[in-house]
Amino acid sequence: MAQSARARWRKKKYLSNYLTICPYRLILKSRLNHFLHSRSEVIAQSTTIHSTFVIERSFPVTPERVFDAFANPEKKRRWYADGENKQIESYDLDFRVGGKEHYASGFKEGHSLAGRTLKSENMYRNIVPNSRIVFTSTMALGEQCFSISLGTVELLPTEKGTDLILTFQSAFLEGADGPEMREAGWRGLLDKLAGELAR
Q1: Segment holding 22, helix H or strand E
Q2: Nearest 5°: CA angle at 147, between 144 and 152?
Q3: Which residue blocks in 72-178 are alpha helix, DSSP H?
Q4: What is the CA radius of gyration of the chain?
Q5: Closest CA to 182 of 172, 173, 197
Q6: 155 with 143: CB under 8 angstroms?
Q7: In the chain, fewer beta carbons within 10 Å around the N or the C end?
Q8: pTM of the entire predicted model
Q9: pLDDT per residue as tens digits for the range 9-46
Q10: How far apart are CA 107 and CA 115, in angstroms?
């Protein structure tokens, strides 16, 4: 009986060490190494670019007037959507938390994107009247989305008027304009906002 018990113990130990635990560890390690290697290749080949930029502007008008230029559909369209090289196909603004802003525009003949449609859609996530606007934004060329962003506009009253701080965070996908062009685009938009406020 003693030998039988000892034999059973040896068999159990053998099964545990060699047929269950060791092979499992080898398989797990092999799969883990393959996963990590594959993930490294995906990261190395990723075409997503992340970017954050901050733009500050001062306007010689009250925060209420600056805020109204974001909230009023007619005013917002003039400085945000309209442009010399654009042909606006549609524009809508529902300025409230949960509301959306959408525009689609074509490009005039001679432009590198003539014949294609640029689509922009914003959703307003947080609005504090005359103080803060937080929105998410997607942009697409045709049906291909090429960027997803989070924008925050802060309005600070000053003795001379209003300081505006725009913080814009983006994930740029395949075919995107990229961080430099997006920042330049927003600087140009804020120049147009200054013109709107001077009307």
Answers
A1: helix 22-45
A2: 145
A3: 73-76
A4: 29
A5: 172
A6: no
A7: N
A8: 0.74
A9: 555 544 444 443 444 444 444 444 554 455 445 444 56
A10: 7
Question: pLDDT tens-digit profile of 45-62?
Answer: 568 999 999 999 999 999
Q: In a 3-state reduction of DSSP, which class is residue 178?
A: coil
| Residue 57, amino acid | R
| CA 22 to chain centroid | 46
Looking at the chain, how many residues does it have? 199
Cα gap 100→104, rounded to integer Å: 13
**CA separation for the pair 85, 105 (Å, rounded):** 10
Question: Tokens 């010399």 label which residue?
Answer: 84
CA distance 134 to 148: 14
Location of structure tokens 């013109």: 195
Q: Is 66 within 8 Å of 57 (Cβ atoms)?
A: no
State yes or no: pLDDT of 5 exceeds 80. no
Residue 115 DSSP one-character state = T
